[in-house]
Amino acid sequence: MIIVASKGITTDQLDRIRERVEALGLRTHVSIGESRTIIGCIGDEARLSHVPLLSIPGVDSVHPVMRPYKLAARDFAADRTTRVSVGDRLFGGRACLVAAGPCSVEGAAMMAETGRAVAGEGAALLRGGAFKPRTSPYSFDGLKEDGLRILTEVREETGLPVVTEVLDPRHAELVAGYVDMLQIGTRNMQNFPLLREVGQLQRPVLLKRGMSATLKDLLLAAEYVMSRGNMQVVLCERGIRTFGGETRNTFDLAAIPWLKMETHLPVIADPSHAGGRRDLVAPLSFAAVAAGADGLIVEVHPDPESALSDGDQSLTFDGFAALMRDLGVFAEAAGRTL
Amino acid sequence: MIIVASKGITTDQLDRIRERVEALGLRTHVSIGESRTIIGCIGDEARLSHVPLLSIPGVDSVHPVMRPYKLAARDFAADRTTRVSVGDRLFGGRACLVAAGPCSVEGAAMMAETGRAVAGEGAALLRGGAFKPRTSPYSFDGLKEDGLRILTEVREETGLPVVTEVLDPRHAELVAGYVDMLQIGTRNMQNFPLLREVGQLQRPVLLKRGMSATLKDLLLAAEYVMSRGNMQVVLCERGIRTFGGETRNTFDLAAIPWLKMETHLPVIADPSHAGGRRDLVAPLSFAAVAAGADGLIVEVHPDPESALSDGDQSLTFDGFAALMRDLGVFAEAAGRTL
Amino acid sequence: MIIVASKGITTDQLDRIRERVEALGLRTHVSIGESRTIIGCIGDEARLSHVPLLSIPGVDSVHPVMRPYKLAARDFAADRTTRVSVGDRLFGGRACLVAAGPCSVEGAAMMAETGRAVAGEGAALLRGGAFKPRTSPYSFDGLKEDGLRILTEVREETGLPVVTEVLDPRHAELVAGYVDMLQIGTRNMQNFPLLREVGQLQRPVLLKRGMSATLKDLLLAAEYVMSRGNMQVVLCERGIRTFGGETRNTFDLAAIPWLKMETHLPVIADPSHAGGRRDLVAPLSFAAVAAGADGLIVEVHPDPESALSDGDQSLTFDGFAALMRDLGVFAEAAGRTL
Amino acid sequence: MIIVASKGITTDQLDRIRERVEALGLRTHVSIGESRTIIGCIGDEARLSHVPLLSIPGVDSVHPVMRPYKLAARDFAADRTTRVSVGDRLFGGRACLVAAGPCSVEGAAMMAETGRAVAGEGAALLRGGAFKPRTSPYSFDGLKEDGLRILTEVREETGLPVVTEVLDPRHAELVAGYVDMLQIGTRNMQNFPLLREVGQLQRPVLLKRGMSATLKDLLLAAEYVMSRGNMQVVLCERGIRTFGGETRNTFDLAAIPWLKMETHLPVIADPSHAGGRRDLVAPLSFAAVAAGADGLIVEVHPDPESALSDGDQSLTFDGFAALMRDLGVFAEAAGRTL
Q1: Residues B84-104, mean pLDDT to the nearest whole number
Q2: pTM of this prediction?
Q3: Counts for chain B of helices (H) and strands (E), in that order
Q4: Is the ipTM reported for this complex over the cut 0.90?
Q5: SS3 state at C311
Q6: C-alpha angle with apex B212: B211 to B218, nearest 5 degrees?
Q7: How far apart are CA B213 and CA B222, in angstroms?
């Protein structure tokens, strides 16, 4: 932590700041410049994190120099890449994994049909929501445990491991009992009781970036999960909220390479929510893979026009087949396989 | 709902769109313009909300014309203002209510001291967090039930009704058993299981706007609570996340008058989180009251420099006394009392 | 400037960084911490501003500690408030000045009528656009020099000094020859040739914040004008562009007190553009004055429904009269006059 | 244009709205629904654009259905792709064109060296700023006409057509006399006098998206240029300003495919400004090409550490060589050449 003193700080004020910092076990180092005095704080910066330094007289600004996350930081992992196993698939390896399926599990038949279709085109996982967060209380919110049961049936038939969202800390164990990977949705990225709950389970977690979360916030959310003992976290860029109104969200593509440099966790992208339009899914997918993503999560529906949610952004089976065919070329260009 | 057709839509496509809409019990009304054909959909727009209209061939754009919330809409309340009772105080009446207290309940002595101080200066409610959401898993996260107990002791001594945050749906009943008003924090504005839980309790709810929530999102979150039977909701503007880095958040002042025109629910402001700096609390408070806010929620601490959270933005007792004195003049200018 | 070294920086890298900084006449001060090494740079930070420090091996992050503006910084003015004279009015004194008038000068009659009306209600200045920036090339873009002539005629009749926008560096002298105050619009806040041009004239400048400008950017834009010798700058908050779609812009109210602490220049607000709706003008105006604004600029039109631009947000004469009456009470509460 | 009436609109109000619209030569079509009345306006919507419809009693909301741009809209061009010739290169054809060079022209030697290096690696154009917009008035702002002269010398030696920024409408002709393509920078995307000036010249224009411009704003800016007769416009996504602080700007990748669907103009990307960091240039470039970009503009400098501007994001010659080598693979995957 570096503290920049106000112009005209007094000796007493300076002493008091130093005492405050040193009382927490850090050392201080004062540099008196031409126009500003700077106090370097050496030691465990985390101890200073709750100290309201700006409220101490004589402090003008405060500059943290350490990353606030540890387990999620790239330095933490010896070989600098964590591989996350989901069923017999591996996130973070050479293969780019595509999770595909409908927004919501709407019934057994449509899920089975979708499972077969996406498995046939090379999807690595099956997605489908059994518990749905909906902006309006009047919208369809999922089949709940029936949906989970359907997902496991389709897994049995297709061999695809299954990822589904968990919304409520009270359901975490239940959901983990059925599926292979637990998704934390964008609205729950900072639902701390939920993060702690999935941190205590031994199921891999797909953590989606919050709509207005910085990348540091995302890594701190991963840290919540990891600090409880569950190190199997995959991060997902899915678009952020900005002034731009032409697409559903703003796909922050640079998040992918930035995260790959900053953390050892695998990083995937959700082109369906990022763009919000079927015809944007393919170009966003190609871009994500070209930028180094370890995978994608894509919405596919047997009949998007009749989907109970997210129909506008869901691919048809034909659309998914075309996506996978073209994606293979970009994966190869990126030195990956599908 | 108004559907604008693509250029060159075929008769078949047009018929199909109409059939789809009419199958849901709405009527359609087609206007053929010089360059565009428009399909008006007359009836209950909510039934169309899950239909992926954009994915139907021939549809160019879709324009909802109804508000997606009902109970929260201004039209809903006959006299156009809901009054929310908290203990013996009333949000939405002539008086502007100020809730004051520390970010976190740190102990019995500091809470008692704070309670007496803010009661003496005219605060209407006492605030204090027993369960704290923290961006880092390594930060202090509250005294939990001990904190709730302390809050009730200070209520007994001071007579101030108490508002505190509830984070976890599993704690909703517990918290409601202790305090007078349940706060839903900014990170939980779209935590739907939690909203449903507090919707089933008979405790007034202080609903803070999410960091990247539109005002429509905020009203839909209120609708979640109200649709479960709890109509006692107070809305709170607390700043949004934008590119602006000079203040902790961007205080969206216009949200206050906009909400007052759009809903019958009371609206208050949180100048402490909006500005994130002690010296911004007073001007933001004056502005909120001038713009028509029904109250404020303000952080006050006996010794901000030693606060375990939010010390930078907490007022001292003297600071709070000065705020209340000056605020009275603005409340009067706005035709209100404190 | 503080430079934080990468983990594992070598002695050679450290030496090279120091040499680079010292070659520019600054001194360096190295603190070796437990996990990070920090290089304090003491001296004229501006000399480092063009050095791509992040591209030097061994540099992890860079933290400027000096403000990049000098003339606009609060410290610069001895008595900490600059007063800007426009005609016989003074921005930055005890009086809150209200500039009022139509978005565009549409003709002599409507301007004269408006001038008389707003003068009668206590406006301090007359506004009106002769050169209009329009998002679409097909919109009305002003009466140009004819509009300037009309403005001076109304000034003669009403005694109100006149403020109008200048868009084009080629017109700066022409406009300055007619009016009392030159407005730089939001789209031109970083039009550097234009800023330099008005910096060479001796006309006060009303500098509106860019739609996505930070407050530091705004002060640097003021610095452009001031560095050319024209110190008569008034800043104006007019709303920024965010995800919030319910109002035309997001009125960043906290900008007003933040700027008042950070600069010696007067600060006013534009509630018409910030809200974009007639019924938001009054509450935003009250809030701005309560938060310490030195004035307002408000759109008023004899018949908003027939206005050639910004009709939705223009007040009628009656609306303006009501605003001024109510505003007086808030100005008094803030210790100001109108 | 569709007008949604307020609840409880009177017949008189409805008549008045219709009269207002019909007076402009449009027809109206009224649909009376269960809870809302809707007025469809049929005809030339542009005539309604300046009418303050929201200020007419009885109007609740207004929904434009036509695009506000014409010449830039995809429908305008018969074969749906405009090809823009710059020297002997063609934007919008099968080849992906890479413009490369330093941020600023710093001198003849470094430009010649850079020109030779980038030409050798397959760059299609040379970039370099002679007039530089700088946030601070104290930063280096370019060599001006000397810089232009240097650019033409390097063109002569290398055969690369040259693109450079024009900042000031007074310099447009001068700059057009020297270079092959005129760049409008992000801060000038809505500098309307400048847009009009370049619209009257017969030089292709590289139009960069404003920092907070929507894609519709960008197309309207293109419309300004085109409406003056210069149809040779290439659009450039270069990152927008959002809350995200980890990269210099937020690269809005989806803008590329969205624009390709919405306009017939070529679209390129600027990965250097979007990411602001050398190590992000390659992944952002790959992604842009994968998403369908018609080209890139990349900063390259012989010695980034000593660059007078943008050194942090400039590639070395070796870095550029590596970029071009890897980019070729992605271009091929996208069915393009370099």
Answers
A1: 97
A2: 0.94
A3: 10, 14
A4: yes
A5: helix
A6: 85
A7: 12
